Amino acid sequence: MTRDRFESVQVGDEDEITHIITREDVDSFVRLTGDNNPLHVDEAYAAKTSFKKPVVHGMLTASFLSTMIGTRLPGQGSLWYEQDMRFLLPVRVGEKIRVWAKVRQKSSAQRVLVLDTAIFGEDNKRVIEGQAKVKIIDANHNVPLREFTGDNTQQQQNDQSSLKNNLRSQTEKGAVIISGASRGIGAAIAKKLASQGFAVVINYFQSESQAEEVVRVIQQSQGKAIKFRADVRNTDEIQKMVKLALSEFKTISGIVNNASLNVENVDFTQLIWEDVQKHFDTQVKGAFDLTQVVLPHFLERQEGIIVNITSILVDNVPPTKWLSYHIAKAALAAFSKSLAAEYGPKGIRINCVAPGMTETDFIANVPEKSKLLTKMQTPLRRLATAEDIAGCVSFLFSDQASFVTGQTLRVCGGIVME
Question: Measured on CA atoms in the order 186, 309, 325, 228, is the torsion positive or negative?
Answer without folding.
Answer: positive
